[in-house]
Every structure is written in C-alpha cells, then in structure tokens.
Amino acid sequence: MDSDHDRSSAGGGKGVWPQALNRPAEARDTPEAIPPTPPPTSPAPGPSATGRGMAGLSFPYQVVAALALSLIGLLACTQVVMVFLHVAPSNTLSKQHGKTIDRWIYPEFEQNWKLFAPNPLQQNVAVHVRAEVVGADGRRTTRWMNLTHEDGEQIRGNFFPSHVDQNELRRGWDFYVNSHDTENRPNGLRGDLSERYVRRITMLRLSERDYGGTIERIQLRSATSSIAPPPWSKEKISTRPVYRVLPWWTVTPDDLPEHDADRDRERDEARGVEASQ
Questions:
Q1: Mean pLDDT of successive 10-residue stretches along the chain, which has 277 residues
Q2: 276 pairs with which residues across the strands?
Q3: What burial class does residue 203 get, using C-beta atoms within 10 Å of its C-beta: 0-12 exposed, 13-18 middle, 19+ buried?
Q4: Helix, strand, coil percentages in the chain from 3-state DSSP, rounded to 5
Q5: Whole-angstrom distance, CA of residue 82 vs CA of residue 90
Q6: Is the pTM of this model over 0.85?
Q7: Pseudo-torsion of CA 54, 57, 62, 66, nearest 10°?
Q8: CB within 8 A of 131, min separation 6: which ones?
Q9: Residue 198 to residue 188: CA distance in whole angstroms
Q10: Of 28, 128, 171, 235, which is the most buried if we count CB atoms within 10 A?
Q11: Residue 208 in contact with residue 256, Cβ under 8 Å?
C-alpha cells in the first residue's frame, strides 16, 4: 500500500490526476485563460455635446454673432489701413484723403513715428519761459527758466520716470510748432487748441513757485541747437542755439490749474458781493 502510494505521488500514477494528464502540453504550462475585458463604450452624446461655439447657437443668435464678428473685423482692418496711411510717406491716397485720415487718427490714435527709416532727430530743443509778476514791489519780469532742463533732471537716474516728465512738455511744444507758421500764426483749426494747451502746461509748472505776486503775463521761447558730430567725422555743424520767441500772453483763468481758477473765481465773487453792499 505504501509503495503504491509513493509511486502515485512521485511518478505520477494515472489514477491520481487524470485531468492533468489528458491536457495538451501548452495548457499544462500556462495559467488558465481569462476572457478579455471588452473596451469601455463611450456614452451617447447628449444634447449639450452636439454643438460647440457658434454651431451650438440657434439660427438667430448665429446671425447676430456673425454680424458682430464681421463688424469687429471691418473696424480692425480700417484701423490698420488708417494707421498705415498716417505713418507712411506722402502718397496719392494720403494726399487725396488726408482730412479723412486725420479725423480718424486724431486725437485718440495719434502716432509719433514714421514708416520706412525716418530721419532721426539731430537737434536738442529746450523750452524756456519767463513771467511778468505784479506784487507789492511793483511789476517785474523773471529770468528765463528752462522747463526742459527741469524735466531732464526728473528723468536722469530714475528707473521709472513719469510719462508727464518725459512727454507732456515735449509733445505740447511739438503740437504748437506743427500748428503754427514761423510767424506764430495758426495754420489750421488746431492752432488755438495747441496754444491753450501750452499755456496750461506752463502755468501748471509756474504755479509750483512763489514769486511774491500774481503772474499776469508769460512768454515762451525755444532754444534749438544741433547735436555735435562725432570726433571721427569731418562734418562741420554749428551747435549755437537758435531761438524762437513767442509773443507775450496775458494769463486768463482758463490758463490756471483748476484749484487756482476756482480760488480766483471765489475771490472775484466775494469782491462783487462786497461792492454791491
């Protein structure tokens, strides 16, 4: 009995594992086959996934969206064309439609550059001002003050200079020069606007000083000097400043900063009440 049992356990009697003996060789060495898992099926698209963007809108909304996009595209193309004609060299279109281009560009989209390698600025332009002051000691005229130099002092060494210090006076003076002829007469409708703009800028700067009296008149001038050529150049250029002197302007309440103008109005009203009493 023991011998029979040992033979069956060791050598493999036929009566012990008949199912294993009857299997093919491949099935004996491999684990039992597992049926493959079917791939997950995606859920059927709902009503919200059938359309994306404009395609998901109803027909009336699609029409409105198409019209809005068309209008935005038309305005963008018009803006690009107008800016291009404004900064491009003088040509037939800009000459024929110059007024239309200017009405589109100014003042919101004003450009201060030119296309196709413009000539760089080779001059230094400084704006000076002096004032006529009436005080307790009588009437006197101040010395010339270099407003451009004061702006330069605020910019030098400043990593984040103010836009006002960099551009307000410079652009204001350019605005005036381009709107007046050499005799300081307006050459267009923007002449009066440019003069009032420069006067307000000047009085804004002068209101920060105390002259011991009231400023009744102001006078401006520009000092333009050419930039000296480099040492290696044989070009000879005079660097002496050339002055453009403007006439005296009488200061009006509109030229004063707002708080000063309000103060003057209140003073005039008080004088009028006292006179009536």
A1: 49 49 51 61 54 77 90 94 87 86 84 67 89 90 94 88 86 92 87 92 90 91 90 85 94 79 53 48
A2: none
A3: buried
A4: 50, 15, 35
A5: 13
A6: no
A7: -30
A8: 141, 142, 206, 211, 215, 217, 218, 219
A9: 16
A10: 128
A11: no
